[in-house]
Task: structure prediction
Amino acid sequence: MEVIKVSLLPKSDASGRLFTGPVTRQSILTSEQSAQFVVNQVNFAKGVKNKFHVHTCDQLLIVTSGKGICATEKEEVNVFPGDIVLFPAGEKHWHGATSDSDFSHIYVTGPNNQTTQIEE
Result:
């Protein structure tokens, strides 16, 4: 058994063209710890989101802090700590912080997942 304290994990800059502003990432599991899952926490500043994208594997989000929005082409939902969101492989979606709150979630996906950004 291994207990991982996310609050003690270093944050690295994960900002890039998929995101509308500053984002950090905390790697929770390394490839040596799990060959079956990729698990990271992503931390969004107020109002920052990612752009519409799709994954080749299912993506599970576990909200850990703040208030966020998860959206597909058909709906937008506010999410809060303890909420869990499942985006099936191939579903066009985005997620991020509301304008008045930071937002963090843990994501779980497969090790061979590929992300394709749809929105510029």
